[in-house]
Amino acid sequence: MDQSTKIISRPAICCSCSQQCGVLVHLNGKVVTRITGDKKHPSSGGFICPKGAHAHELHYATDRVHVPLKRIGHRGSGDWQEISWEQALDEIADKLKRLLESDGAETVAHSIGTLHGADWGIGERFMNLFGSPNMVGQDKICYGPGAIGETLTYGFGPTAFTYPIPGKTRCIVIWGMRPSASSPLLWRQMLRARAAGAKLVVIDPEFTKEARKADHWLQLKVGTDVALGLGFLHTIINQNLHDTAIARDSLGFDALVERIQDYPLKKVSEICALPSSSIAEVARLVASNGPTIFSAGNGLCQSGNMAVQNGRTVACLVALTGNLNREGGHTIAGPPRDVINNGVAMAVDKLTPKQRAKRLGADDYPFIGAGYDAVDAAMSRRWYEQKHLLSWIATAHEPALWRAIESGEPYSVKALILQYHNPVGGSANANRVARALANKRLELLVAHDLFINASSRLADYVLPASHWLERPFFSYGYGYMAFVGDYLETQHEPLVPEFEHRSDYDLWRDLGRRLGQAEHWPDTATDFWQSLITPAGLDFSEIASRNGPVFGAEVQNPERELYDAPVDYGTPSGKIELSSSLLEQWGLDPLPYFDKPGIFDQEADFPLVLTTGGRVLDGFHQNSQQMPWFRRKRPDPEVRLHPETAKVYGIEDGAWIQIETPVGSVYQRARLTTVLAPGTVHADRWWYPEKGDDPEDPYWVSATNINCCTTDLPEDCDPVIGAWLLRGVPCRVTPSVWKHVDGGSRPEI
Ligand code: SF4
């Protein structure tokens, strides 16, 4: 190295997942040489995981899109012309304007993928100002069902991220979650609490890293979580282990007592494939050894028809075991009091009721449709008259979007802007998604992304996105949703955007300014965020200089102590609602119940149970697929199954096999393991980032992506918010060779 070269280290907040670790970005001139954990950061204290440490690999990936591209061949041909941002935005804005005038704003939709920078989600502001109700995201399968389950019960959520307090928390229940992979900072805190004496219960179909540390591991059958929760409640209530004051003051305790008599332990034991004695033992532990934290993860949210029921059942357990607003248990922090919240920031009130009523999915799912207002009113009454605290879950229904594109029902969607999202890879029923994106009814498809992928390859315009290293940071909780409440953090960008890369904010600002929204778009994302915190007397740069989050009264200005029992919960009755008045109002069962998704009608032909997409530490949804380090480590998709199951079907370790469900079939490499019970099959989420030789499916999606087998059919979706089913799909497996391996045309790593 040139001795005169000076390496400088800039503090930043890693956005390679949602943990928000403080990192140091080491720069040689303008080039990132290393990323390391920042020991001075108060939340992460020097921790960094492989995704964060390798984040600059993604930034410098050789196949990144650096300039705007316009399609010049047929859709998917891969024939592009490089154009300027000005030309791209002028042409896109012109098309949107013409569609607005001819078909109405609702004909324009926007679909967003997972967290990729602090301005993730800002497109909702554009959509509301434009007048379209059709932004879709992954909220329906990512903490949305848990949030609505808790909110229907005690008026705010999710609280599943409440950190245990070592020495105070005495029991931790990890349920459908792998924090060692998905939330390593939370996992570290759980281990500290465990070392200080907390008991650990893990509920997971797989013998995970967490299960290895557990005092009790309940290996339930995939998709039976609600039945297990009702079994817990059966034991707790019938043995008088519940909090009697909570029971007395709640709505519907007697009705719940009656309901749980339908779930005696013998029946629950059969449904969940668990011994009755284990269910009873854990129920007694969580009720009598509190404070207890129930850390419920996305395994529960991705369970289709049972998604909100899972959230409701866990919420009833939190409340009835006396663990709400309890030090060492769950806390409802509420939103920041004086900071402008996310729903208002997203201009939700600018969308007229008439346009909102057209939201795709509004007629099918009450929380997406007319039911949202009652939830919002109750929360607003409780939380300082703030509006739209849960608007982040009330977005349009993604499966309804694909149907609208294909069928023109209930109306045509003619333009779609994808942002950092590859729905052909990540959305349920992926073959149908691919058909929708290729459909001629879709007159304009724009993708704003780092790469050309299985979805953006079909676009009319591909716009080069900036990496999080090129963006400033702002968070008032988790991402932009503000459900932690008393937390705020900012940071300046470590790198000036390179080439023609632009952030989400810059894209929507420039499109908005072309479409009459100029007054709503300050010059920079930092200016915009400053406008949200000015009412609280906070300053973006000053907070950034602290290198760490601002907690507590400074952002929240609480009207009471955190652990006081609220005099008013954010429910319509103001009470904890064990029997939900809103569910009843919506014509749904107000009490928790267990049922299988409709797809199990075909169980006889598909005798195994498929679960998909368990998290790994080195990957974050689809964001890591193009990282060379990740690809070298994970060259092919793997499907895990028990050796006994493999023997029944003549499957050998390492062989390619076919996985079939009533929805579709794909190929993955078998990995035999005893971490799963016989009869359970766990497949990787997958698509190849390298291009193969099949012009119709160059990224091998239809051959290998397990989402070709998952379901978004109405009978499998949650009746409250429409969550689709990624975990617990009936399936079968057969030894089979994927032809591309045979023919040698599979891409080389
Ligand atoms: S856990 Fe890893 S990827 Fe997530 S924020 Fe921390 S360092 Fe980044």
Largest sheet entry = 7 strands, mixed
**Major β-sheet strand ordering:** 5-4-14-13-12-6-7
- The end-to-end span amounts to 30 Å
State which percent range the strand residues make up.
Answer: 5-15%
Q: What form results from the Cα inertia axes?
A: globular
CATH-defined fold name of the largest domain = Rossmann fold
Output the structural class: alpha/beta
Assign the CATH class of the largest domain: Alpha Beta
> What is the typical, i.e. mean, pLDDT?
92
- How many discrete domains? 4
SS elements, strand count: 23
Compile the SSE list and pairings:
Layout: E1 7-13, E2 22-28, E3 31-37, H1 50-53, H2 55-59, E4 69-71, E5 80-82, H3 85-103, E6 108-112, H4 123-130, E7 135-136, H5 144-154, E8 171-175, H6 179-182, H7 184-195, E9 199-203, H8 209-212, E10 216-218, H9 225-238, H10 244-249, H11 253-260, H12 265-272, H13 276-288, E11 292-296, H14 298-301, H15 307-320, H16 342-345, H17 353-356, H18 372-382, H19 398-407, E12 415-419, H20 423-426, H21 430-438, E13 444-449, E14 461-464, E15 473-475, E16 487-491, H22 504-514, H23 525-533, H24 540-546, E17 550-551, H25 553-556, H26 581-585, E18 608-612, H27 628-633, E19 638-641, H28 643-649, E20 656-660, E21 665-672, E22 680-683, H29 701-704, E23 727-735, H30 739-742
Parallel strand pairs: 6-7, 6-12, 8-9, 8-11, 9-10, 12-13, 13-14, 18-22, 19-21
Antiparallel strand pairs: 1-2, 2-3, 4-5, 4-14, 15-16, 16-17, 18-23, 19-22, 20-21, 20-23
Helix pairs in contact: 3-22, 4-22, 5-15, 9-12, 9-13, 9-15, 12-13, 19-21
The chain binds iron/sulfur cluster (SF4).
